[in-house]
Amino acid sequence: MTVGLPEAAGRPGYPADRHPVICGVGGYVPPDVVTNADLVARLDTSDEWIRTRTGIAARHFVGPGTATSDLAVEAGLRALKSADDSQVDAVVLATTTPDHPCPATGPSVAARLGLGGVPAFDVSAVCTGFLYGLATAGGLIASGAAARVLLIAADAFTTIVNPGDRSTAVIFADGAGAVVLRAGRADEPGAVGPIVLGSDGDQREMITVPAGGSRTRSTDEQPAHGDQYFQMAGRAIFRQAVERMTESSQQALAAAGWQLADVDRLASHQANARILAAVAERLDIDPERQLSNIERVGNTGAASIPLLLAQSAESGDLRPGQRVLLTAFGGGLTWGAATLTWPDLGPHPTPDAR
Hints:
Elements: E1 2-3, E2 19-28, E3 32-35, H1 36-40, H2 47-54, E4 58-61, H3 68-83, E5 90-94, H4 106-112, E6 120-123, H5 129-143, E7 148-156, H6 166-169, E8 174-184, E9 192-199, E10 207-208, H7 214-217, E11 231-232, H8 234-256, E12 265-268, H9 273-283, H10 294-297, H11 304-315, E13 323-330, E14 334-341
Parallel strand pairs: 5-6, 5-7, 12-13
Antiparallel strand pairs: 1-9, 2-8, 3-4, 7-8, 9-14, 10-11, 13-14
């Protein structure tokens, strides 16, 4: 499915003056840094093994009592400051690790941000959550339901990862990223281009937390040991991720009328270094055009892309006027891609994660 195609393409697009435009960005990672050496001390692994297979040297973990909403609030505050406006008409939170199974975490985040009674809700698409949230926020703006939307993607992934499973414990980490979107024109810097989204529920068990939902709670059977933790089929996921991210990227570029040579920066979901390299190779995008922070922050789930954008803008690796291709893959299975031209934004402080 492609969202927001230009009218010239012969399919419905956003109204001329209600196109979603990014006007603020912010990111946050919790202060506790966990290095490879810290993990080697308790797992059957090595720094070389982790770096070679994932590209990760360090990551940030939440401390006791810290939840997804705490990360989301911090990123939201930074995005609102960057937008130079504390008022929005709606809050969309993309997360796989809500504070509670019920209720949604979005309303709590909106309340803590002092946003009054604005509509707020969660979107769940695992690591593709930001792109699904981007399409949702764009729909709110295009329909006239909101003029400004705060989109936050936040995950405390370490709360669902088995700390003794080296295949996942070395990869996943915690963090949040956020953008503020306003109604504008398609030719403005920051305007979100066509968004391509897809899913394949027949392969849902490739990435899953088997226990804890209504499927297991509706039976008298006790969950198997470890079923309360995140599980994934690594090799199969690698193939699916590379294929889906490449295809959706090509579709988004075609819908936007861009060529691969037009892309100044590729902002992929920071799954692991091997997937990033394979996708970039298939798209023929050289390393100088790839944004990456996986070495410093690991895989932060739905937060990955907006955190990457915030940190890259702060460091100068992402500059106003550059054409950006976004792409992600996650559980569901879900995937997606989008294009945008990076705007000139206000301050977007993020902690030093070097």
